[in-house]
Amino acid sequence: GESVGLHLPTLSVQEGDNSIINCAYSNSASDYFIWYKQESGKGPQFIIDIRSNMDKRQGQRVTVLLNKTVKHLSLQIAATQPGDSAVYFCAENTGGFKTIFGAGTRLFVKA
Amino acid sequence: NAGVTQTPKFQVLKTGQSMTLQCAQDMNHEYMSWYRQDPGMGLRLIHYSVGAGITDQGEVPNGYNVSRSTTEDFPLRLLSAAPSQTSVYFCASSLARVDATGELFFGEGSRLTVL
Fold it and tell me: How many angstroms separate the CA atoms of B99 and A15, rounded?
């Protein structure tokens, strides 16, 4: 059936602050997780990934944390900039390269 | 490289009409997939393919058909369009190797309205 919920969760942060976006995933057998950024009118773009044998991975200004015990992912963005304003999705690979997306969080960066 | 190319970008259909959304990639990716995204919501997997001749159902396959006759192309067919299929459709591809990242490369989307 159709999903309910017409409004994405929203996070509003001040420019220069750190942002933390959270995600709960559903399948305990998932072994690979990815964060995507989607700007208005565009397709999602890869930010960072992590495999299930890790609990932390860092990129440029971004860090992903994985807690398999509670099936939780977080994306931390350091020194958030106006260009970071977008919708952020976590995605899980459930095996065989099939990728399922979470609901998304809209990030607003206030100048 | 063009990456993932979707056509058409916009389409309006009447209820009951059929149509095909085209998707092509030039990155020699084995894995291709179709998602739909409704306003203010996430992406839901419709169908996917791990190689030519192989397709499988995703989360919301009803009302859609796919085929994968070549590595490059993965068309999505709407058999008899319904207003509930009004959405933005994204095609995505990736390398299907365990030693590669599973990063999906997305097309720019096809906005479909069914009246």
Answer: 37
- Whether residue A41 is predicted with pLDDT greater than 70 in this model: the reply is yes
Q: Is the pLDDT of residue B56 over 50?
A: yes
Best residue in A38, A92, A101 for a mutation probing chain B (most B CBs within 10 Å)? A101
SS3 A55: coil
Tokens matching residue B52 = 């030519």
pLDDT at A5 over 60: no
Phi, psi of B14 (to 5 degrees): -95, 155
- Contact flag A101-B41 (C-beta cutoff 8 Å): no
Across residues B85-105, what is the average pLDDT? Answer: 85
Per-residue pLDDT at A80? 97
Residues of B with CB under 8 A from a CB of A: 4, 31, 33, 35, 38-45, 48, 50, 56, 58-59, 84, 90, 92, 94, 96, 101-109
pLDDT of residue A3: 34
CA B30 to chain centre: 14
Residue A8: pLDDT band with limits 50, 70, 90: confident
B40 conformational bin, left if phi > 0, alpha if psi -120 to 50, beta if neither: left
Interface test with A, best of B31, B104, B111 (most A CBs within 10 A): B104
